[in-house]
Write a structure and sequence with these properties.
Strand content: 5-15%
Shape: elongated
Strand order of the largest sheet: 1-2
Helix content: 55-70%
Number of helices: 6
Distance between the termini: 79 Å
Number of domains: 1
Number of strands: 2
Length: about 110
Amino acid sequence: MSIDRQCRASPSVGEIGHNNRGGMVLGESAQRWHEARFTTRMSQRDVERAIGRLLTDEQFRLACRKDPASACREAGFDLSPLELDALAALPFRALPRLVAQIDERIRRLTPPRS
């Protein structure tokens, strides 16, 4: 088998090869590593966005206090069960003091109920 043909063959675990269109093909372990790294990075971004939203959006904060999984799903945050548990464990009673320190120009206030 020629070297060129070997590079195009499916890579074994942990190897990187090339497909017949010049693209890269990851071996099984390399693909798992890539997916885990990408997922973690995206999940961390959603965690950060959810925390920011908790501090700046009163409606989201109220919804999250009742049902974090639903609130995050509706807001488009893709959090793992572990991250949702951590979010649910936040001291929601302490948040208003912290929120009061945030400039009103970057907060979403809930209109008063009539």
